[in-house]
Amino acid sequence: MTEPMRQRPLLALSSVVLELELLTPLHVGAGGPPLVGGYDVVADPAQGRYYLVDVDRLIAERMTEEQLARGSDPRVEHLITPQEWPQYARAVLPGPRGRDLAVETRRHWEVLPFTRDAHGHPYLPGSSLKGALRTALAYELLRQALRTATGPDRSGGRFGDLPVGRALWDQLRGERRTSREWFARPLETSLFQGSQSFDPNHDLLRALRPNDSAPLPLDASVIEQVGIYRLHGGQLRLVSDKHRWLVEALPPDTRLTVRLDVDAGPFGAERGLPAERRAFLALEALFAACRAFAWRLVTVEYQSTRQSGSPLATVYASLAKRIEQSSRDEAFLQLGWGTGWRAKTIGPLLELSAVTDGPEFLATLVRQLRLDRAGRGLPFPRTRRYVERSGRPAMPLGWVRVRPRWSMTEMTDAATERRPDHHARTP
Hints:
Blueprint: E1 13-22, E2 35-36, E3 41-44, E4 49-53, H1 55-62, H2 65-70, H3 76-79, E5 89-94, H4 103-107, E6 110-112, H5 126-150, H6 163-172, H7 185-193, H8 204-207, E7 208-210, E8 222-232, E9 235-238, E10 244-249, E11 255-263, H9 269-272, H10 275-278, H11 283-308, H12 312-324, E12 331-334, H13 347-350, H14 358-368, E13 383-389, E14 392-395, E15 399-404, H15 408-418
Parallel strand pairs: 6-10
Antiparallel strand pairs: 1-11, 1-15, 2-6, 3-4, 4-5, 7-11, 8-9, 8-10, 8-13, 12-15, 13-14
């Protein structure tokens, strides 16, 4: 007799639809080469219009077999007139014009493209959202561990007193040296798996599954000029004229719809995670962790920009106020390209004065892993990427507000109504 086919474990997903409202421009890279000016994209700087060219169609319709065989330059201006640009454009996007466009950018320019689906529509990958949620959860889990370790007075906590802190210190001191890519493995294993050894089957992040967003219209994005700035002598200064990019970004007030799934199946939340980890997958707890990390990020950046007298301080002050006054139905995250080292690490927690060995650990980390190429140590990082207006830093990248399509009260009521009554008899 043949054995019956073994059934695969069934997923048990609970889902919520989230709405993401962009507060500042968002860029998520497409992962390929930049769009080359004059070939993949052409611009009318006087009108502030950028045409993303359908290159395949342009070459197929406007180049002869003889030109192709000869290897003629397929530059757009060699094939069509500016009046024909709209005819061959996949999308026409607004962007910087006149003095807003730097001289160096005009001469040698490329555009970093936004991620698009197979049909050319921009969208937010679920992996980008999951990365931001991962950092917020790591911050909150480690913050709670430090609070527990400090005792009732909540003062004088040491990162090195935690098991995960000791493991990371050992790596930095050379007792268990590892590569930069794998350095954070003990941290992730301890925080997300509650284990001393790597166990991917019992991982908090395995149960958390953001989907890709619904696609947006072809022309939903804009072109922004972004510069790298360094705080020097109390002032924000552009690193150099060559440290600027044109990037395709989604503008503020854009709304994205994302479905967030939580797996409660055999390897998910209910059977695969301990109760103290499982609690963080409740939407209210997840949102609270996001707000706490966002508050810390914003206040750190506010202090830096306020000291420099930059108008960016007003932007961060406004963000801080929104986070402070937000409800339990709201979360704030910083997503995508240009968010910086702090937004992707637990660095902001270790910079708190309450973590007494935090600065020492960070300084050793930066030096041993060679994160600062100039070798200057703390403060780190020294540079920021900002969206420019009239050649000046005006906005940070990637800040979003997240809300469920239903309020949490409505979701709780709906779940109660759907919950089966196990004592009722089936007619």
